[in-house]
Amino acid sequence: MKNLQPTAEPHDVNADFRGGGRSVEYLDQINKASIVALAEARIVSPDVASRIAAGVLTLIRAERDKPRQWSADYLDYEPKLLAIVGADASRLHCGRSRQDISATIARMNLRAGLLDECDALVQAREALLFLAAQHTRTIVPAYTHGVQAQPTTFAHYLLAMDGALTRSTSRLRAAYQHVNQGPLGSAALTTSSFALDRDRLAWLLGFDGLVENAYDANHFAPVDTSLEVATALGIAAVQIGQFAQDLHAQYAAPEPWMTLQRGELVGVSSIMPQKRNPAALEQLRVQSSMLLGDMQAVSLLAHNVRSGMFDYRAYDPVPSARALALFELLRKVLGGLVVDKERALAEVHADYSTATEIADALLQRADVPFRIGHHFASALTDYGRSRHLALRDIPYREAARIYEAMASQAFPLDAQAFSEVTSPEYMVFGRRGAGGPQIAEVDRMLARQREELATDLSWTHSRRAHLSLAEAQLDAAVAAIADGATASFPIVSNPETTS
Questions:
Q1: Burial class of residue 376 (count of CB atoms within 10 Å of its CB; 0-12, 13-18, 19+)
Q2: What is the pLDDT of residues 87-123, one digit of tens each?
Q3: How far apart, in whole angstroms, are the C-alpha atoms of residue 422 and residue 354?
């Protein structure tokens, strides 16, 4: 029996890949750059170029106040331009393909995301350094294997985290250098017989240069540039997740020395009135894990796929929304941390994390071989713990007796020296090595890391200024063509040389 149901419109199974980010806006910019390059190369006559440019600008104005479009597919766009300009509108597509258009849109979305992500990460690091400056003298326990290891300062720990995030910012900046190369004009994979100036197209769109090989531009470079961005964001996600775990571990103690301020960062229980749940830390960890998963998906889409397949060529291949939300949550958490200095110091005193210094002091002050001193400190720890004593509560006479029994000689430290070298203050602020928690070294690192922060902030400002200048020059060039103001279409200066 004949099917009388109306035939549905064919569905583009790749439609979800042809949008996202600012793809529609970037298609407009690509179309403007294309008509400028076509006019300047005399591939399109001045009259036709003027009508096409005017049609492109008319469409931009007409679409501006409508609901946001999600498709940046040129095959969806061209009929609209044909309705305004006529058949000559199809000349806009000379020397290009949806392949290089999609590669270009992807790079424009990637670079916009990278700039936003760098800015958001810089803001989080700014909050981190602000907090560190307040705690250069705050002694806290540090942990290895989940067990208290040695005391340090909270500033020292925070500067370590900033060092990690600074490297992540550097990775994002390095990725930008590879991303900001123009593929437009490579057409499907071999360029075309039209003498398009690909360098000019790249300059008009704010790119710093070309992905030179046309095959590479559309079929290999989209993979590794996306993977480079995804890898940098994935590493940042792991770093932030580790930080969230460090903070969250404190909540296992009845009296944590580090908590979150009451308010939006803290949740409550529906049944247990005493609970103050560190909701923001849980979300920081969860969102880090989700971002890491998203970034792994970028690899999986490109893995074991032939070049030229659609799998890895989404117009917005590494969306920035989750990364930006994560970096903003990190900034809020840093602004909401409350450190109980006395409680932190009490936790250090409650354990044996200063025992390391006993062996060092015996070697430095009495030339006792390190391993002898190490064995003594270990025996002293076992003695104290078996009697539920803190290190500072072990009587000096017992410490001397244990040493004499082990070394067959008198204990070379007097009571005052023994008390001094086992104190957290002596151990933390008496460090001599580069990168340690001593105040002078922390102050030095803090100053240097502030300089790196300022450099990263300046970099994003300069890149945004470069893109703004390129866009202004593109708008001026296409407006001149649309107005038919000149038959010569003079080439506007390269943004790279004027920024």
A1: buried
A2: 999 999 999 999 999 999 999 999 999 999 999 999 9
A3: 5
CB atoms within 10 A of CB 322: 17
pLDDT, one tens digit per residue, over 213-268 is: 999 999 999 999 999 999 999 999 999 999 999 999 998 888 899 998 888 888 88
129-168 burial by CB neighbour count: b if 16+ within 10 A, else e?
bebbeebbebbbbbeeeeebebbbbbbbbbbebbebbbeb
Angle of helix 98-133 versus helix 154-179 axis, rounded to 10: 160
Q: Is 351 left (phi over 0), alpha (psi -120 to 50) or beta?
A: beta
pTM: 0.90
Q: How far apart are CA 82 and CA 65, in angstroms?
A: 21
- Cβ pair 333, 286 in contact under 8 A: no
Strands of 241-359 (E only): list them.
258-260, 337-339
Please classify residue 390 by burial: count the beta carbons closer than 10 Å to its beta carbon, then call 0-12 exposed, 13-18 middle and 19+ buried.
middle
Phi, psi dihedral angles at 259 (to 5 degrees): -140, 175
The DSSP string of 348-369 is HHHTTTTTHHHHHHHHHHH---
pLDDT in tens, 201-219: 999 999 999 999 999 999 9
In terms of Cβ atoms closer than 10 Å to its own Cβ (0-12, 13-18, 19+), residue 271 is exposed
Q: How many residues comprise the chain?
A: 499
What pLDDT sits at residue 267? 80
What does the pLDDT read at residue 430?
92
The widest CA-to-CA distance across the chain, in whole angstroms, is 108
